[in-house]
Predict the structure.
Amino acid sequence: MNKTICLSGILFGMLSVVIGAFGAHGLEKVLNAEALQTFETGVKYQMYHALLLILVAVIPKVSAMAKKTIFWLLLIGIIFFSFSIYFLATNDLTAFDFRTIGFVTPIGGSLLIAAWGVFAYHVYKSFD
């Protein structure tokens, strides 16, 4: 499981660089400043949580079951949070109104928060 978690973190990290570069260089002329800032927020949160995935994978004191829980919370959280933000920021560029799926953004954020909570609990517990 550690390999899967670490490789997922690396993949999400790489994707955040690619998506961030696309936003900075490919969207700067077609999005307003507010939409670009929103897009950048998605990129930042994706990278933060990619790094957290890598950290979770390499910490030996956290149990395999806890790592699996954290992994799924982060995986779904990143997809719901960051990717919905990408779609919402670029909403004016498509025919589909992504505001109709905007409700998944706070769900994703809640899953990311839950992952941090589970991680904190298991790290704290491991020092007993």
